[in-house]
Amino acid sequence: MKDAGYSVALFPGDGTGPEVLREGEKVLGALAEGGAAPWRLTTYPGGGQYYLRTGREWEPEAEAAARSADAILLGAVGWPGASLANGDLAGRALVLGLREGLDLYANVRPCRLYPGVRHRISGTYSEVWSPRNVDLVIVRENTEDLYTPARGRLTRAHETEVAIDTRIITRKGAERVVRFAFELARHRDRGAPADGRKRVTCVDKSNVLEGCRFFRETYDRVAIEYPEIERDYAYVDAFTQWLVRNPERYDVVVATNMMGDIITDLAAVLQGGMGFASGGNVGTDHAMFEPVHGSAPKYAGKNQVNPFATFFAVEQMLRWLGERHHDPRLGRQADRLERAIAGVLAAGTARTYDQGGTTTTSGAGDRVAEAIRSEGR
Ligand code: IPM
Ligand code: MN
């Protein structure tokens, strides 16, 4: 517990990132009213647009702040035409760079459908899933697999002949993320919506890939330590259809990095779309939280995008800080925020365009801030 408060480094980044992060600051401000907020926020520039202006992805002091902060809140990075000399995404330092550099090995993506949230398929709002059957968390390995910088091209006479990405699965990488998933399942109170069972599903392609066989063996070894949690297995291809058909079977899901990247976007559809999907990049000593929708250049500057993913990212951050520092104040603030979010969603008074409404980004932030205030502390 830190009496002086926790330092939070904010990286708004590109496109709609600054717009949603501003709303994140707004709800943090509402939580802090009337008492000393146990956090200090500092904002740093960086990302693809910054790179286009300055030739640097961020400044050395921003990087140092990310390393020393108690937590990081990221808007989004990526901008059309902004790429580094080697072809990489300009701004990668802020997302992939921090995942690697701070060893944020678990990417935690809750997928819950809140009452009042609509999900859209083929342009119409459907009710195929209900809040009663969507409440799971996908834990994605976040530091290795196809994302390890072990790649390159083979060129002959200035022409690319071969492009290679190497998939690396290590014992340490697999073991710690699987253990993270089991610990999470142990501490989640509800279990899978279908039967209330605590269950960790290992998603892989171990019928074909060696790395996946190793990942599954590691899962089996760790699972022995958690006899009260049900073991469950799915090949990733089959998993995509089971997730859509029977999301209520799932409690915690663990996957390797690239497969986890893909299945979490699919899962976002079940929770109302990318506008509601948040992620925590969690390591032992550091963590970074973000809405996972990206910079959405098309909507930048329009005050239109859905800021709820950012509110959920803030909630995740407060919970993590509270647990990490054994500080119950943060957990209480996370609960207040979640109640305010859930209340506004249920009332349907802050529907942005993706939800068929006309509420603006800042309007949705106002609604949630008001809900925090009106409930009091
Ligand atoms: C995500 C994103 C990133 C990833 C991109 C922006 C590099 O898609 O967080 O899921 O691939 O991990
Ligand atoms: Mn992704």
Q: Any overview of this molecule?
A:
Helices cover 40% and strands 21% of the residues. The mean pLDDT is 96. It is α/β, with parallel strands linked by helices. It folds into 2 domains: 1-112 and 277-377, Isopropylmalate Dehydrogenase (3-Layer(aba) Sandwich), CATH 3.40.718.10; 118-270, Isopropylmalate Dehydrogenase (3-Layer(aba) Sandwich), CATH 3.40.718.10. The strands form 3 sheets. Strands 2-1-3-14-13-4-7-12-10-11 form a 10-stranded mixed sheet, sandwiched between helices. It has a two-stranded antiparallel ribbon with strand order 5-6. A two-stranded antiparallel ribbon has the order 8-9. The longest helix has 20 residues, at 328-347. It has 11 helices and 14 strands. The radius of gyration is 20 Å and the shape is globular. Manganese (II) ion binds next to helix 8.
Question: In which order are the strands of the major sheet placed?
Answer: 2-1-3-14-13-4-7-12-10-11
Q: What global shape is seen?
A: globular
Helix content: 25-40%
Strand content: 15-25%
What do we call the CATH homologous superfamily of the largest domain? Isopropylmalate Dehydrogenase
SSE string, helices as H and strands as E: EHEHHEHEEEEEEHEHEHEHEEHHH
Mean pLDDT: 96
Identify every distinct bound molecule in the structure, by name, code or SMILES: 3-isopropylmalic acid, manganese (II) ion
Number of helices: 11
Largest sheet: 10 strands, mixed
Can you identify the CATH class of the largest domain?
Alpha Beta
Give the termini separation: 20 Å
Number of domains: 2
Q: Looking at CATH, which topology of the largest domain would you report? A: Isopropylmalate Dehydrogenase
Number of strands: 14
Structural class: alpha/beta
CATH architecture of the largest domain: 3-Layer(aba) Sandwich
Integer-rounded radius of gyration? 20 Å
Uncertain residue ranges: none
